[in-house]
Design a protein that fits this description.
The protein is mostly helical. It has one domain. Helices cover 57% and strands 0% of the residues. The protein is built from three helices and no strands. The longest helix has 13 residues. It is elongated and about 50 Å long. 0% of the residues are buried.
Length: 58
């Protein structure tokens, strides 16, 4: 996900977390750049497809 650009590795430093979150909220281009990339882990609808497949087999 880091390599894909869909997340930022910030560690556990509160100031760094706050700074990056603030940057994404204020910088429209930075937010747009991250939000429009493809998630390497899928589209977030896997559970729906799994449930549908299970119900079809019952």
């Amino acid at each position: 996900a880091v390599e894909a650009g869909t997340v930022i590795m910030v560690g556990n430093d509160r100031d760094k977390i706050f700074g990056e979150a603030t940057r994404l909220l204020r910088d429209e281009e930075a937010h747009r750049s991250m939000s429009q990339k493809l998630n390497p882990y899928g589209d977030g609808h896997a559970s729906e497809r799994i449930l549908e497949a299970i119900l079809e087999r019952l």
